[in-house]
User: Which sequence fits this backbone?
């Protein structure tokens, strides 16, 4: 059982939770994630660890409400408990001194680049952050990222804040200006990571993406999170979640992500109907 120490609603659909998890806090490194289950019959969902505090024995998770489980999670309050949390899982990011590192977060992906920005900055890199959202009120961790980035840009689909357009447009502008970029790290919607990878490939810019396939046991046994990278089958839970963006078969990944969309939609509808009755 893991006690919820802090809960903050960052925007209409995104929540932050600081949770008691001393063993995970002790071992966590940037790029890793946990799998949690709210109750005995609940599904297992993977969430990136945004921060860990070894002194207080806690980890910080940020999640977007997209289905029944994340909606149930959002209803838990400070002082209540999450049944179990497994982690840290996945391979940590290889933090090195590259030179100039551009970190790109789309939507809730902004939360996932925050620990990366801190780590790459600490390794002596010049860090450029780019975050995007559909509209200004869906942006998260803006101030936190500004503090750890040497340059910081915002893009919104509707132009309500920052650049009117996509994060890939901002990256293209930097490339066109002649900014020497040594590494791009992107996390967010799969289509965004595909566009970013296609953009950087002709320039030979090393590009890492953090994938978010459907995942169940997160130990490499069930195979649900399999992705094709460089023509080989990889399991995102144990081989990733980070991969070379220029080698990922994004079309296959997107097709697999759509596998249970109808079922997930129906389950959420049933839950919301029961909630109202």
Assistant:
């Amino acid at each position: 059982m893991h006690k919820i120490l802090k809960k903050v609603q960052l925007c209409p659909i995104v929540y932050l939770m600081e949770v008691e998890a001393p063993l995970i806090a002790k071992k966590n490194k940037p790029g890793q994630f946990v799998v949690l289950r709210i109750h005995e019959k609940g599904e297992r969902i993977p969430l990136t660890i945004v921060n860990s505090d070894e002194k207080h024995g806690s980890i910080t998770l940020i999640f977007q409400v997209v289905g029944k489980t994340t909606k149930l999670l959002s209803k838990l309050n400070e002082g209540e408990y999450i049944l179990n949390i497994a982690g840290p899982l996945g391979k940590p990011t290889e933090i090195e001194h590259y030179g100039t590192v551009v970190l790109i977060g789309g939507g809730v992906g902004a939360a996932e680049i925050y620990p990366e920005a801190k780590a790459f900055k600490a390794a002596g890199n010049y860090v450029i952050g780019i975050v995007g959202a559909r509209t200004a009120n869906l942006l998260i961790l803006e101030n936190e990222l500004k503090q750890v980035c040497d340059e910081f840009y915002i893009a919104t689909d509707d132009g309500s804040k920052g650049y009117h357009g996509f994060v890939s447009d901002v990256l293209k502008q930097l490339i066109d200006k002649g900014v020497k970029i040594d590494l791009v790290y992107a996390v967010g919607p799969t289509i965004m990571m595909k566009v970013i990878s296609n953009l950087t490939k002709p320039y030979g810019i090393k590009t890492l993406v953090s994938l978010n396939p459907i995942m169940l046991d997160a130990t490499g046994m069930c195979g649900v999170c399999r992705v094709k990278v460089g023509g080989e089958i990889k399991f995102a839970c144990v081989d990733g979640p980070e991969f070379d963006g220029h080698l990922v078969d994004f079309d296959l990944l997107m097709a697999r992500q759509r596998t249970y969309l109808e079922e997930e939609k129906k389950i959420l509808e049933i839950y919301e109907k029961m909630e109202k009755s």
User: Anything to note?
Assistant: The chain has nine helices and 16 strands. The mean pLDDT is 94. The longest strand covers residues 2-11.
